[in-house]
Amino acid sequence: MRDQSRFALPFGRTANLADAMFDTARGVSVESADISQIYVLRASQDPREFGAMTAWHLDARNAANFTLMTNFQMRPDDVMFVAQQPITT
pLDDT per residue over 27-45, tens digit each? Predict the structure, then answer.
């Protein structure tokens, strides 16, 4: 299991969900991660919607969904969460 960490968006360019997932230093541990439970949480930028959030769920057990990772653009303050395998809890 890897500890929580921050993924710095590259200055002057964009990053996608695959960049964050497979970052060699802080990426997701394939041994302990439940790849069927990948979430990205994004808070609303509208001050009238304080506390509002959008959540996306990705089940990466289907390899076709990996193409979605390369098209999902990460934004500052996004939170990516990957659940642990039940055996590791």
Answer: 666 677 888 999 999 998 8
Residues 49-80: pLDDT tens digits?
888 999 999 998 888 888 888 899 998 889 98
Structural domain that includes position 57? 20-88
Determine the length of the chain.
89
Counted domains in the chain: 1
Instruction: From residue 10, give the alpha-carbon distance in Å to each of 19, 25, 30.
Output: 10, 15, 24
Tell me which DSSP letter residue 14 carries: -
The two tokens of residue 72 are 């999902």
Q: CB–CB of 85/30 below 8 Å?
A: no
**What is the rounded distance in angstroms from the CA atom of residue 18 to the CA atom of residue 16?**
5
Q: What is the pTM of this model?
A: 0.75
